Hints:
By secondary structure, the chain is mostly beta strands. The chain has one domain: Thrombin, subunit H (Beta Barrel), CATH 2.40.10. It contains three helices and 17 strands.
Amino acid sequence: MFAHAIDIASRFTFPFVTLRRDTAGRISTSVAAFIVVNDAGWVLTSGHVVDQILSDGVESPEPSGDGEPDGSSRIVERSEIWALPGFSATPARMVEARVNRLADLGLCRLEPFDSGAIGAFPVFRDPASPIAQGMSVCRLGFPFYDVEAVFDEKTQGFMLSSDAFPIPRFALDGIVARFNRRAAEDGSVSALFIETSTPGLRGQSGGPLVDVDGRVCGIQSYTSHLDLGFDAHYQIDSELVIERQFLNVGAATHVAEVHALLGEAGVAYSRG
């Protein structure tokens, strides 16, 4: 059902890799996703992804002598990879950013940017074609993948394993289960999210939620764990194990919020 849609979305959906080293020498990496909006180098991802780039003084646990976390340590080296085609030769950097934290949307402009290397630009679903409950949708991103890196003291930079790229895309379909609104603390404004019958996976944050025609319906934001109201009972050897049961559902920022952010920023895009 989504073969054509994924073919389209894969042309404008790319991995975003975060690399961090703290004062204890520990290296952490993470993978998210972003989509290229237009030929001027504007891209969309989750707001929390952009906030991570903008933040200073990030803290992480620092092990004590027995190896257990004790206190905190600062991030002293950080790097981001916007894995556009040809990024290894000409790495792109974020030169402008705008974040709607309530809607968890991040809008950035990258430089340098070669528009000719992008296979297609997204079409954002028009409000004239409402997203309906029960509609089939699919999200695209880069979960189930670890990027291995070391820090080279000589070059003062991160070095990745030779097989770190390309990062395989992973598609996950579902239906629109319901719509949720997140309100500001003072209740003055709210943001609309699409809740789906399947979870968003770590590595899909910032990736597109598309319909069967490949039109962007939303941007993956987070996953909720809904209590089903019952426990599962099973036996391991002679021990009875009781586990609470949950339904994991994905939440994507509604395309209406995308239209609003792009419009406020004066960024050109396609709707259909």
